[in-house]
UniProtKB/TrEMBL annotation:
InterPro entries associated with the record: ADH-like_C, ADH-like_N, ER, GroES-like_sf, NAD(P)-bd_dom_sf, QOR-like, Quin_OxRdtase/zeta-crystal_CS
Name of the featured protein: Quinone oxidoreductase
Keyword Protein biosynthesis set for record: no
Domain Enoyl reductase (ER): 11-323
Alphabetical list of PROSITE patterns matching this protein: QOR_ZETA_CRYSTAL
Listed CDD domains: QOR2
Coiled-coil region: none
Keywords of the record: NADP, Oxidoreductase
Amino acid sequence: MSKAIRIHEHGGPEVLRWEEVEVGEPGPGQLRVRHGAVGLNYIDVYHRTGLYPLPSLPWTLGMEGAGQVEAVGDGVTEFKPGDRIAYASPPVGAYAEVRLIPADRVVALPDAIDDRTAAAMMLQGMTAQYLLRRTYRVQAGDAILLHAAAGGVGLIASQWARHLGATVIGTVGNDEKAELARAHGCHHVIVYNRENFTERVREITGGQGVAAVYDSVGKDTFMGSLDCLRPLGMMVSFGNASGPVPPFEPGILAAKGSLFFTRPTLMTYTAQRADLLASASELFEVVSSGAVRIEVRQTYPLAETARAHRDLEARQTTGSTVLLP
């Protein structure tokens, strides 16, 4: 028997339970993986609360992990026991010492990247990859706005966007996070609880606005974000930390400059294995080159995941957080 964090009902962090689970042998096309580290991400909160429904309850949470293959099921030829792997995709179930996962959802982990770094970068890093390279393809000379710039995706995306030659404007909640964002690529940092971010963006860009807004905050920033965009700009809403964006009249996009709006997910962008491998490969390349550095800012024992969730929701964390089995 091994242990895992499971929920039997939706709710606050108190519903997270540390329990014994039976893992069993891998079925056809599956791997059994022993985790060295597990990633903590805001999507885990959405699964816990029921905003993003799970298939059934009870269920083990978690979307991201890294570790070693213990056993392979029939038909698996790409991996063997002892291989190091990482992943950031469904099926949900990473908050576990050991788990089963489809082999086509994991990627081989380069020797230069340890388990903690991998668990800190796969979901957030591949999110940054699709945002910057596919949803709106950032070009040298673009100005972009990145909300939650001191968060996990924010620290990676800021460095990556700057590496691509963009002017990076980030929003944060306090001066400590502002310093962190500046140290990770932001040219301009706006402390949103004492500055009007829309006015500051217009000032920074000489009234032109930005090419794209990357917004994981949601309800609190949505309308202001639209006013930051240049004509034909792209509004990318990829998270709901402050709550879901309320329904809005599409005509507002026309009135504000024929804007584009999208609500993407990593799961769609990596649904095909070729896309998953390409995304991970580009991430590994920018990390290995030093263009993007990954920092594990907090660690928690996996058994204390409830405490990690409380800190995450209270915005007490910065950058990447890892849970240790």
